Amino acid sequence: MRKSLDLIAESIRIAQHPFRHVVDRPQKEQKHRYERRKVREYIRLVDWVGDV
Fold first, then answer.
1. What pLDDT, in 10s, does the model give residues 13-37?
2. Against a cut of 0.70, is the pTM above it?
3. Burial 7-45 (b: 16+ CB within 10 A, else e)
4. Partner of 45 at 20 to 30 A CA spacing, among 2, 11, 30, 38?
């Protein structure tokens, strides 16, 4: 099955994502791995100090 040039040109012109639900989802906030480790370590420290 061959696509006509008009169909190919139309698909290029339309800049929608092929999966409609992907566009609606908010992007996950990216954090540095070091920052996540640091936060986890602070939480463990607070829990340990709270137990004493």
1. 776 666 666 666 666 666 677 777 8
2. no
3. eeeeeeeeeeeeeeeeeeeeeeeeeeeeeeeeeeeeeee
4. 30
